[in-house]
Amino acid sequence: MRLSQTFSRTIKTIPADEQAINAQLLIRSGMIYKEMAGVYAYLPLGLRVIENIKNIVRQEMECLGSSELLMTTIQNKEVWELSGRWDDQLVDVWFKSQLKNGTEVGFGWSHEEPLMILMSKYIKSYRDLPISVYQFQTKLRNEFRAKSGIMRGREFLMKDMYAFSRSQQELDMFYDQAKQAYHKVFERVGLGPYTYLTYASGGSFTQFSHEFQTVTKSGEDIIYVDKKKHLAVNEEVYNDQVLRQLDLKKNELEKLKASEVGNIFNFGKTKAEQMDVYFTDKSGHRQPVYLSSYGIGISRLMGVIAEHFNDSKGLIWPEAIAPALVYLIAIGNQKEAELSLELYNLLTAQKVAVIYDDRDVRPGEKFADADLIGIPWRVVVNSKTVTSGKYEIKSRSLDKPDYVDKESLVNQMSRIVSRLAIKS
Ligand code: ATP
Ligand code: MG
């Protein structure tokens, strides 16, 4: 990516209408654009972060044997009436509209019910199970308040996965594997140490649902964390009986603010019974399909990461999801520009993502933008490079640069790329 060819610009002043750090930094660095409150567009740099997060999530879901599909945004009222969730009293975030002929339709805030009906056309016998599917989809929710930047949008990107099982035992097995996959996702995006499996309300079959909560001052939830066990309890279910049940001690828990980046539910057979989704078992009997569902807020995750990794100069992206690994700056004239272009080509040939700042602006501006955009490694080509063959390389999170020759620089960066890829 050459900056001279992109349209987005960094902004010096803090947007007056944004209180959330994530929105301030992401707008200032040219990653997102605010269409209106709670509604954001993703610009080229921001979209790269989203795609990097999606790819990590996609790899981990594929490891579980799940298959990707894409459901619709326009939804059928009748499907939602089967479970009673068409009701605005029960679901207070619906966006609804009407077709020209007066037929009411809803806009997808969730996809459990439509997917149950879709899958019921394919699940007939025990041979069709277990099966799991997932998607990345824009969800539309008429949220009452949208003041946390991309952490709470009226339009946001979610990964939702659904597993269909033949028994509670089969469901539980998948549920545990999915939990592990979720831990891997949060580890890989850089939030592992700050993200806790959290007992929460909302399992319609079991007593609890499990949330993945990332500790952050800007979070809307309160959780009680046992750091030693790396577990937490959401305030909404926190009481003496629950603590006893989970073998947690009050005096070992820390009360912290957190943001829910993921949520997994065990519905047991309740949804299938509501919606009449059955399969024929080995002995020819009709049995309800067991459902579990697994969400990750992709855009919220990006917001939480932005909240977590920054300093007074700007963002500090973890390598695995950064819009690029290297920010390349040339200072000087033609010779320096030639060396930069050569390095740019060498790095990109090794699959190292590079932002080449080839704009006709002062070096100071380039340095400031490299920091604001938060690219993990900054490489400078200047007159000393021309005479000594040494390139200046600096980590975004350190003050001191190193001076290395071309080969070791390319090796160092491509080693990082292979390390990040191997984790899958
Ligand atoms: P919350 O309690 O934060 O309102 P939820 O329980 O309604 O979220 P789910 O329906 O379980 O959320 O959605 C799965 C995931 O989608 C959540 O864990 C969260 O990461 C993300 N998410 C939910 N609502 C929003 C939103 N308005 N903006 C951005 N991400 C969201
Ligand atoms: Mg939730």
Brief overview, please?
This protein is an alpha+beta fold. It has helices spanning 21-28, 44-63, 77-81, 112-120, 168-188, 240-245, 270-275, 298-308, 334-349, 363-373, 383-388, 406-422, and strands spanning 32-36, 39-42, 67-68, 74-76, 95-98, 104-107, 131-140, 155-165, 195-200, 209-215, 221-226, 231-234, 254-268, 278-280, 286-288, 290-297, 310-311, 314-315, 326-330, 354-357, 377-381, 390-395, 402-405. Helix 1 (21-28) packs across helix 8, helix 2 (44-63) packs antiparallel against helix 5 (168-188) and helix 2 crosses helix 8 (298-308).
Q: Any idea of the CATH class of the largest domain?
A: Alpha Beta
At the fourth level of CATH, the homologous superfamily of the largest domain is Bira Bifunctional Protein, Domain 2
CATH arch. level architecture of the largest domain: 2-Layer Sandwich
Distance between the termini: 25 Å
Overall structural domain count: 2
The gyration radius over C-alpha positions equals 24 Å
- Secondary structure: helix percent: 25-40%
- Biggest beta-sheet profile: 5 strands, mixed, barrel
Would you give an account of this structure?
With 424 residues, the chain is of the alpha+beta class. The protein has two domains: 9-311, 2-Layer Sandwich (BirA Bifunctional Protein, domain 2); 324-421, Rossmann fold (3-Layer(aba) Sandwich), CATH 3.40.50.800. 32% of the residues lie in helices and 29% in strands. It has helices spanning 21-28, 44-63, 77-81, 112-120, 168-188, 240-245, 270-275, 298-308, 334-349, 363-373, 383-388, 406-422, and strands at residues 32-36, 39-42, 67-68, 74-76, 95-98, 104-107, 131-140, 155-165, 195-200, 209-215, 221-226, 231-234, 254-268, 278-280, 286-288, 290-297, 310-311, 314-315, 326-330, 354-357, 377-381, 390-395, 402-405. Strands 9-10-13-11-12 form a five-stranded mixed β-barrel. Strand 5 (95-98) and strand 6 (104-107) form a beta hairpin. It starts with 20 loop residues before the first helix and ends with a helix. Bound molecules: adenosine-5'-triphosphate and magnesium ion. Adenosine-5'-triphosphate binds next to strand 8, strand 13, strand 16 and helix 8.
